[in-house]
Design brief:
Blueprint lengths: L3 E3 L3 H10 L1 E4 L3 E7 L5 E6 L7 H18 L7 E7 L2 H4 L2 H14 L13
Parallel strand pairs: 1-4, 4-5
Antiparallel strand pairs: 2-3, 3-5
Helix pairs in contact: 2-4
Length: 119
């Protein structure tokens, strides 16, 4: 991930949960908040409800890959936390990708397409 660093501190996760914007889909929840940094920070959480360590790591890998493939479309300067839900393990990758794209668009994290004029 070129323009992203990890989000690791517990107090930063809690701040996003309480003060950030959120978007929900059956596969994950995305919390985000604008910062003044030149890069974005990403945190991924997987709870014990997902299953054993193998399943939790699979969920993290799938989410990290989703983020990596769409990173170029996202605006820099955001703290982002993605909370995995149980369906992320078994969902088809295409469905995960569509849900991720819809949520980042809803949260206004994407760059405007080059053909569009700002309103």
């Amino acid at each position: 991930m070129k323009h992203t660093v990890p989000l690791k501190q517990n107090h930063e996760f809690r701040r996003l949960y309480s003060k950030g914007k959120s978007g929900v889909c059956p596969y994950f929840v995305i919390y985000c908040r604008k910062t003044g940094r030149p890069v974005s920070r990403l945190g991924i959480t997987t709870g014990l409800k997902l299953g054993n360590a193998v399943k939790r790591n699979r969920a993290r890998r799938r989410i990290r890959e989703l983020y990596r493939t769409h990173e170029g479309e996202l605006l820099p300067g955001y703290d982002i936390v993605i909370v995995a839900r149980a369906r992320v393990i078994y969902g088809r990758y295409g469905e995960l990708e569509r849900s991720f794209a819809r949520l980042v668009k809803k949260l206004e994290l994407t760059r405007a397409p080059k053909g569009d004029k700002p309103r």
